[in-house]
């Protein structure tokens, strides 16, 4: 196995919290494969690169020889965890959860090594748990401590309802770590609290407490918001290779390094060299191409990544309007008129109105092939081919 | 059946809270036997008259023709309810709970009509409940609402730990009402919050919410504290008839009316007449004798009540020191000296030091037959026969 110090560098790259570093070093020094738990609530089958940050960290651990447990919280999903959300999540019926779980795993194995993944569901032990056993679990944690969780605390202070069953979710999640005898649990930084509950539960059951490592939120393609489907600034894991490639090529140089750190499997030495080369004058476009190629290849295959690259280069060189651009459909009343700037801002094709004005001033916005010098009014029933800068293309349809 | 208005008078006599009076009147007007739930946590097998307040209310309802359900919370007892207590109650193992339950019922049927009592245990439905079902129950109640319960609130504010499992107790108790399809639930006033949870649960399960009626705490034989074993101001339900009789005879006239209201089965018309007679000059001792006789008779039988009365009268007339006085055993070091006043105060034979001084000034305290004029020092290994006033006798043993 790789030396502990080197492993630690890879494992902690881009991470936010590590509890406790000392314990993790001790575990790595034992030279045995660690049991790495990552829990997923099968409620969001539309996965994007934001989710891939965690999957990538799991893959790094697999590549280092550790045992990854992909835990589907099919039981806990029936409870609903409101982490980071301010409203009580509606319950999902079991058939839907099972279908989501299937979609989830289909997508996640684009990134994970299936051979080195233990796929588990917490219904395995939770379905047979009695009410009495759950009550005994609930003895091990206090109300005050639970109310320290940031979202619970703010909801409590703002007098928004928290159902008592929501307090049971972190306990069940913690108990999962007991059942799986985990050495380390990974999760998004918004899960930090829940992950530490596992430590408390394991201690109660006489086990060594797991280490906890969290990953940050991935920023979207443009702007300072996190990547999310609703913000439209995302790359879906199920998107075609050429879309993935082109979208990565559209991000800023700064955003590129953020993605490298959190999404690339190249090691720290290679990454450091790349940064230095670019700092010393190498074309950042080449670094971006390497990342776009890596991601398109990992999410599809090398052949498709090559094709995506070729298509992009051709489009870029000829500044051709793509045959199949992103379609943005706007619902409008028959006599309604909508400013283009508003549509582009809404669709996240520009990050802000000021970007829109700047791009326009630089002759960077084309509508149906012509540069525009002032905002235009879009009408119901019409279509507009939009090009912003060199790489952003879209077809806007008002229907 | 008795007219609704008359029933309402009997049912509410001496009660504290009634939710909702209007609903109860409607129920009584239907003229059907009500399903009356009273839950008991089988953790206090040493019952005293304080507990009998509730039993008496149950008996009154039985006498009015209603169906009383005596629910033993053998499942909830494994959770532990900290109502009115400031520390987390330790769990009790099931065999102990079962034994307590047996002792409980043996004592309670001195007051209840066994033929008209449905004896149930909530383990009947709770033992087979799954963790998933409990979680679904926990959806129906919010953390904020639970923290409104007085003892939870004060513990939370004082940063004393509340285990999450304590939040599950009121929910299970409320679910009991659903399973039993109750029309009304009775409980001590400290249980008000828990009883109202039953209303919420019943509504969730499409039932009419139960009415809630609470009974007050019974004051002790002397002083202003509630009756309790630890305060030594109590009459145990298992005490001999003559002790019960004599202890009732020792209370003040004012306390006598308090006991009448909460413990006697005589109806309101009879009670009003008794009050008027005493107000018009009848000897309160005769009213006290009637109450002492009623309680000794109900807790034992009429024959024993007669014997108790005879013995008391003989003792009282001759001011004889009883053959078998209350024994108070004080643990003392061999060379330790303890003031009599302190022992009497501790043992609740006097309500306060000032009562001690007043009684002594009136030549009302005898030690081994002699009046004392100043506090005396008691010594290890010795015994003291104490008489305070006309009716309080005790043997103090320092060992």
Task: Please give a structural write-up.
- Two copies of one chain form a homodimer.
- A six-stranded mixed β-sheet of chain A has the order 1-6-5-2-3-4, with helices on both faces. A five-stranded mixed β-sheet of chain A has the order 7-13-12-9-10. In chain A, strands 8-11 form a two-stranded antiparallel sheet.
- The first copy, chain A, is globular, with a radius of gyration of 24 Å.
- The longest helix of chain A is centred in the middle third of the chain and has 17 residues, at 164-180.
- In chain A, a hairpin with a 3-residue loop joins β12 (383-388) and β13.
- Chain A is built from 17 helices and 13 strands.
- Chain A is α/β, with parallel strands linked by helices and 399 residues long.
- Chain A is 46% helix and 15% strand.
- At the A-B interface, α6, α7 and α9 of A face α6, α7 and α9 of B.
Strand content of chain A: 5-15%
Biggest interchain interface, per-side counts: A-B, 38 and 38 residues
Q: In which range does the helix fraction of chain A lie? A: 40-55%
Number of strands of chain A: 13
Overall pLDDT of chain A: 86
Strand order of the largest sheet of chain A: 1-6-5-2-3-4
Task: Please count the helical segments of chain A.
Answer: 17
